[in-house]
Amino acid sequence: MIKKIIVVLTLLISIVGFAQKNNTSAYSFFGIGDKNSSSTVEQLSMGGIGTSLSDVYHLNLSNPAAYASLRFTVYSLGLENKNTWAKDSNDKQSAAATYLSYLAMGIPLGQKGGLAFGLLPNTTVGYSLLANQYDTSGEVIEASAYSGDGGTNKVFLGFGYNLFKGFDIGLQGSYVFGKIENSIINQQKDVALATKYETISNVDGFSLNAGFQYKTKLNEKINLNVGANFDFENETEADGNEYLYSVSLISFESPRDTILNRESKGFLKAPLKTTLGVGLGSDNKWFVGADYSFQEALNVQGGVFNNYSKIKYDVYNKIALGGFYIPKYNSITSYWERVTYRVGVKFEKTGLMVDASGNGNDFTAIDDFGISFGVGLPVGQQLSNLNLGFEFGKRGKSTNGLVQENYVNFRLSLSLNDKWFKKLEIF
Length: 427
Hints:
Blueprint: H1 2-16, E1 34-35, H2 41-44, E2 73-87, E3 92-109, E4 113-134, E5 140-164, E6 167-188, E7 194-217, E8 223-231, E9 234-248, E10 254-270, E11 273-282, E12 286-295, E13 299-302, E14 311-313, E15 316-325, E16 340-354, E17 364-379, E18 384-395, E19 404-418
């Protein structure tokens, strides 16, 4: 047991210092980057549902109340490969990124409680775009290169407890931290030097969420699951610097005269986010469920956030539908009958609105739609799984000067189960 704890702690420590470019989206420029889903590969393969789903063998990161259902110690690690094809009215570009998406561990505490802790990306920034302006003859008269990297991570600790039969509650605290770098290089025709605007921000903050789950039998074979999760209002602070200076791009980027060098401080305030879930299922056989999330608009103030005149935030909401099916979880004659088959779909209004024209009157909502599916492959003699997931989707649109992103995500996770604190048996 001690060796397993050391391995997990070593991985947690090493991943904190591991810099990874884990986004490929132009929309990750805004705010503190793209918000990542706090869901496992198993959940994302079902459209991201999980608020009402309790599981004895797998971690459910969508609702801390689910930790009360754990009966095995669970080690969970996820990897993701993102492939994006972006297009606007003039051009097309593609990009890809692979990264570690989460590392977590769940531990049962007797028959009524459980806790979980781990590390996962909170927001991600990663883009590299080139925009040209042309004269009437088709010659480039101005070029701008946009690039960004970094993001924020989240360390969390959660606890779930069974109050009475079928009813669990949970509470989870998280610390958010990270560093974000954005830059724009502008070069005009017949001008010797280019100009570069750069922001470097250190981000941190705390968040708290709580939830409940209720499970009851409708009949001998079918269960009704109901759940809710509440991400309480929180504030994320960004402290950093803004720079504006001239650069020479003849051989390599060489800074020259500094025009602006000042400290900046900004806040991103997230109001209460509520997620409600309901589902029907049969233990170790099948489950179908739906989650609905909603949140008032984000509020950004001060610092580099004031420079985003082309965006604003609106109400966020998301609908996710999905489920799983296991032909025969305890089959001894067929491996494929013990495989878990998953499928799901999501409809998401991200809350981000962009005005590409910059006149302040033509904001367009950036929506996201995705279809997902996956399998859970049994591993070894115990109830561990190798989980594979795929997602196909589209975000944004290519009209009004915006960018449409078509994406394919491949996900892989290991969910390893072990029984700690076994009683000594004498035969």
